Amino acid sequence: MSTPATPPLSKFRTGGNLVFLSGELPFKEDGGVPEGIEAQTALTIDRIEATLKAQGLGLSDVISVTAYLIDAADFAAFNQVYAQRFQQPYPARTTVRADLMRPGPRLELTAVALAQA
């Protein structure tokens, strides 16, 4: 059985004042993936920010992030970029080492944002 090109998922869903984003990967518009964890982290956060912006939200509205890294050696460099993009108080976060379903990306991020009522 082959994996569909577009998986059966929603880019985001809302529940009350919460906005749940599906996992985001560092794919450029042409489908390519930049080299290095720093560039991939920045692009993934850019993609999250664009989804939030379309909902009238920003990175400051993110309250929780789950980070999946394929290599624990990327953790320090990932944290540097992450800390530059998210401001204090930082979102609650879980970071795990995991295999990803697509070859190329070194990380996948999911986020939950709070839409102020």
From TrEMBL:
Gene3D superfamilies: RutC-like (3.30.1330.40)
SUPFAM superfamilies cross-referenced by the UniProt entry: YjgF-like
Pfam families xrefs: Ribonuc_L-PSP
UniProt cross-references to PANTHER family, sorted A to Z: 2-IMINOBUTANOATE/2-IMINOPROPANOATE DEAMINASE RIDA (PTHR11803), 2-IMINOBUTANOATE_2-IMINOPROPANOATE DEAMINASE (PTHR11803:SF39)
Protein name: Enamine deaminase RidA (YjgF/YER057c/UK114 family)
Organism: Hydrogenophaga palleronii
